[in-house]
Design brief:
- The chain has about 400 residues and is of the alpha/beta class.
- Strand 5, helix 8 and strand 6 form a beta-alpha-beta unit.
- The two termini are about 25 Å apart.
- The protein folds into 2 domains: about 110 residues, Alpha-Beta Complex (Aspartate Aminotransferase, domain 1), CATH 3.90.1150; about 230 residues, Type I PLP-dependent aspartate aminotransferase-like (Major domain) (Aspartate Aminotransferase, domain 2, 3-Layer(aba) Sandwich).
- The chain is globular.
- This is Aminotransferase class I.
């Protein structure tokens, strides 16, 4: 089940949440900066119906950059104009950040649209050449590539993660090798829902040895959170001239612009031109583009956002260690941890205590994805979790 369907079915938007809940970015951004500079964490009041803990959709609870918010306010008088100039500026800044040409950047309505257009492009070229197409994905992973493939009538091959819940690279390669046609391989790195990385050397080795009928969509939605030395962005593969590599990024996560829907793809200029044919026109709104520009320029905010996430992660992992609950090493803004008993029961009990946690991701049965909120929010989560232990629920 994808995020939008889950929202409709869970009653989340009807469960006492008011607009005010979504307008607290200023306070949270200030809290994140205080934590980053002083290391102090002031507990919040317990979660309640009017202020639940939203730890289920990998959003950035610290809120957007104050500079981004002010940039939107300052640009309100321009909202009657089309966003062409803002788009061009944003593309230039993204290109500069990755040290590529502007013609290698494609803006999307979130990274979701970039993933969709990339799948459509690869399938279209396969069909045009009279070849069959398939989409190969690890399982579990972020499911939008497979949803878009299914809507095109393209077969999706799911390759289960290893016993350590890592990408089974050998089996993924086999799924491609035994197919007579074009394969689109979707790899989310760090992976969602596990928050773990696959080493860049493994991926580079595969890309450089792959046939011309293999496309790679490298989803790096959480790349800015990664601190592990084994990770290197697949943008490097693009810069080496590999036309079959498409890297997708988003401003939804560390930049906290999920509601403004700004994402982008990085690829060879020829590949990008083909992808653009499947992108919607004028798909970037003025407010989103301006906020993204300001966010890229606000290095202090980026550092504070990362520091806040790292502090929140430590609060949770310390508690999981104390309770002896297994978890995977996280390189993102969420943690994948074991839950004794049924995950649905755990999820429902958390909801009854005004804490919304992620769902189960079969075939990884017995594991729960927990979004990292602010350090204060995670302290409240730990209080609830320890209370669950006292009741014998975890």
């Amino acid at each position: 089940m994808d995020r939008r369907t889950l929202l409709k079915s869970s009653g989340l938007l009807l469960g006492g949440l008011t607009l005010g809940r979504f307008l607290t970015g200023t306070a949270n951004a200030s809290q994140a900066q205080t934590i980053a500079t002083t290391g102090s964490v002031t507990p919040l009041s317990p979660p309640g119906e009017s202020h639940p803990l939203l730890l289920n959709f990998n959003e950035n609870a610290a809120g957007m950059s104050p500079a981004a918010r002010q940039a939107i306010v300052d640009a309100l008088s321009q909202m009657n104009r089309y966003p062409d100039a803002a788009r061009e500026t944003l593309i230039g800044k993204i290109a500069h950040q990755h040290q590529v040409e502007p013609g290698q950047i494609s803006l999307g309505n979130g990274s979701s649209e970039s993933i969709q257009a990339s799948v459509q492009m690869a399938v279209f070229h396969a069909q045009k050449a009279g070849k069959a197409a398939q989409v190969v994905v690890p399982d579990p992973t972020f499911n939008y590539a497979e949803l878009y493939a299914a809507s095109l009538g393209v077969n999706v091959v799911k390759v289960a993660l290893t016993d350590k819940l890592e990408f089974d690279i050998a089996s993924l390669k086999q799924a491609v090798a035994r197919f007579d046609g074009v394969s689109v391989v979707y790899l989310c790195n760090p992976n969602n829902p596990t928050a773990t990385i696959t080493s860049s050397s493994q991926l580079a080795s595969w890309v450089t040895s792959a046939s011309g009928d293999t496309w790679f969509i490298m989803d790096e939605a959480y790349a800015e959170f990664v601190t592990h030395p084994d990770f290197k962005s697949a943008v490097d593969l693009v810069k080496q001239g590999h036309k079959n590599v498409i890297v997708t990024r988003t401003f939804s996560k560390i930049y906290a612009l999920a509601g403004l829907r700004i994402g982008y793809a990085v690829a060879h200029a020829d590949t990008l031109a083909d992808i653009e044919a499947f992108m919607s026109l004028d798909n970037t709104n003025m407010a989103g583009a301006i906020a993204a520009i300001a966010s890229l320029e606000d290095r202090e905010f980026l550092a504070n956002s990362l520091s806040s996430t790292n502090t929140a992660r430590k609060i949770v992992t310390d508690a999981l260690d104390e309770l002896k609950l297994e978890y995977l090493p996280s390189q993102a803004n969420f943690i994948f941890h074991k839950v004794p008993g049924e995950v649905k029961t755990y999820q429902q009990r958390m909801k009854e205590h005004h804490v919304f946690v992620g769902r189960e991701f079969p075939p990884a049965v017995g594991w729960n994805r927990l979004t990292l909120g602010t350090p204060q929010e995670m302290m409240q989560f730990v209080i609830v979790l320890k209370m669950f232990r006292e009741k014998g629920w975890v």
